[in-house]
Amino acid sequence: PALMLLAAALFSLMGVCVKWATQWYSASEVVMYRGLVGALALAVLARTQGSSLRTTVPLMHLWRTSVGVLALSLWFYAIGGLPLGTAITLNYTSSVWMAVFLMLGAWLGGRHERPDRQLVLTVFAGFVGVALIPQPTLGANQLTHGVAGLLSGFFSAFAYLQVATLSRAGEPEDRIVFYF
Asked: Which end of the chain is more exposed for a tag (fewer CB within 10 A), N or C?
């Protein structure tokens, strides 16, 4: 539990730092610096632990990286133009999008004749909740940033599903994070 609290605090601190940094740098620059620091730290960690960063599934990593960087770039752009809480709320729609993807995947994959009505209503309620939360703080001049925040959640869901796929393919956590 202590590590979870620390992770949440550090994640919140990152949001504050991104909000501050986007006053002087573009979202893509902030994404690049964040990625560079993380990649260097993970490379050093892997080297000291003797683990390999060599992968047998480079295309899977390329897909996850592409979608993940797009999601992160959109989120950082949203943070730069919206109140921090609103940008984070919009990015957190990723769990709602994941539910949509999994429902559609099950339905299109023939595992269910049709999605369960209660599940569909629950996912719809999640989207309604997301729409209600930023309403008081989202101005007309912030629409582009709001759409970017919502799309960051959409693409984050794809990236999270790809992380699960990479894990099932036998890729260790440090390698997945390194290539991101």
From this structure: N
12/166 Cα distance (integer angstroms): 27
Model pTM score: 0.84
Backbone conformation region of residue 117, classed left if phi is above 0, alpha if psi is from -120 to 50, else beta: alpha
DSSP E strands, 29-166: none
Which strand (E) or helix (H) includes residue 62?
A: helix 58-81
How would residue 74 be classed by pLDDT, with cut points 50, 70 and 90? very high
Burial class from Cβ neighbours inside 10 Å (0-12, 13-18, 19+) for residue 113 reads exposed
Q: CB 116: neighbour CB atoms within 10 A?
A: 11
Q: Note the pLDDT tens digit of each residue in 24-56.
A: 999 999 999 999 998 999 899 988 988 888 999
Is the distance from CB of 139 to CB of 15 less than 8 angstroms?
Answer: no
